[in-house]
# Entry
Amino acid sequence: MIEVQNLHFAYSGDNYILEDVSFKVERGELCGVFGPNGAGKSTLFKCIIGFLKPKKGRVYVNGRDITEMPMEEVAKLIAYVPQEHRPPFPYLVKEMVLMGRTPHLGGIFGPKKRDIEKVIEAMEVVGIIHLADKPYTELSGGQRQLVLLARALAQETGVMVLDEPTSALDFRNQLRIWETLKKLTKDGMSVVVSVHDPNHMLWFCDRVVVLHRGRIIANGKPSEVITQEILSTLYGNICKVKDLDGMKVVLPDTTF
Amino acid sequence: MERVDFNYRNKIFTVIFAGILLFFTVIFSISVGVYEIPFFEVFNVIRYHLLGGEVPPEIYNAIVWDIRIPRVLAGMLIGMALATSGATYQGVFRNPLVSPFILGVSSGAAFGAALSIVFPIPYSAQLSAFIFGMVAVFCAYSIAKVRGKTPLVTLLLAGVVLGSLFDALVSIFQYIATEAQLKAIVFWLMGGLYHIDWSHLQILAFSIPLGILLLMAYSWKLNILSLGEEEARSLGINTERLKILLITVATFITSISVSVAGIIGWVGLMIPHAARLIIGPDHRFLIPLSAIMGGIFLILCDTIARTLTTGEIPLGIVTSLLGTPYLIYLLRSRKDQFFGGE
# Structure
């Protein structure tokens, strides 16, 4: 369970990038954060994981305030999946996933048997076990994103935050990410994920928080939140919400 | 089910094998030199000092025990220090191109050493070298740091700029120095081990293994740090504290080396890179292997420096002659690695 309360953030002065952001994600809930580029999604995530210090406001995980917590403790509660990228050194996939165990590693050297088991389990859940001995830098963007997801899973936290995990992926891998996230929430994980495709929100999320110019303008069930009105506010009149066999679908406005 | 092997036996074996190689390199280097001494007599001198017994001839004793052994062991430790700190800098700054030389640490440390020669300051050359080595690397880092990121090009340019600033200051010292001071400064600029005796070795033997062990203790965290600051923090690493600790220790062992042997380039760049090709990027194995390979490399370079001619070629020249082709090879064949694919 994660609760964000009255979060304000500015890099300098009164130039707020996030203003009074509050929302709550229950245990086992898959929450999408939706909004155009520059709406403040990444900034919000960085505040949640403690990378940026909010000017005002609190973030609670399971009732504990994490804004004042040391990083070692936060990492046991929240796992973060960044957008895929290429690090400068060719770590193997299994090494990358093992790094997710860092918050739990006591000793200086060697991870313990339990750590290894968790890492293998995480790679199996995400379906990348066959890549374990490959250098991470030589994978495709989609595979790298799956590795980062496995790493977050190995971190064994109750909350997972993902920054646009599907943006670099082909359609099959996108569905694979969503399928995995669904599986995780079923096991009780709270997931916060930013996405650009409104249809993905409608299809997969339990809750949608809509961010516009640093403020939340809607929060609730996807089918209630993804409306013509909201989409027009965010993007202007470029798309239409249609009903297709009882399922809402966002389609481009064909007039252009 | 696919088998995933988390067994590090091969890597451990590689490190041990390199260690054995280092041991034989030391033995080899002690037994060769311009003045030929039978291998048996070399062994005899060592035995005499360790176990006592029959007294070896004075000339052999002087050459082997007073000259060669401290020199070879000092070369080993300095090579270890430069390679280990290179590997550490590369991990911290997330780039296989940085080295103590390129970041300006060496020039800063040489300035510190020169300062202590020209002006009678109340602390040792080692401390002075360390202070200005630290000044150089933290200046380069803060010049390059923009909004939590340190772009490679800016970092390298900052290092080059600071390096030439310190070089210029050293030149001023050369200009105002007395003849004896000038000689001492010029020695630093060339880099060499010909003057090493047991007192130098004491300084090195105490500080460098300590520094390397510290870096090894943090090698897993260095893996995480090398993924980038944001990710490292989300994995529970206090990045600021870790960075400062690692940079300080790496700069410390570099500066100690520079204060004893002058500027020896390329080791810190080349060796970690070669070690990474052999054992992979995991710093838990990369750091020990770099240390061992750095020791081997510097001993061999120094052996060449003192045996190739009857005179003495400055060690820095030998490492540069061997290092330049390697760097050119890297630039041509592994361009993408230098820039991390960004």
Chain A has one domain: 2-252. The mean pLDDT of chain A is 89.
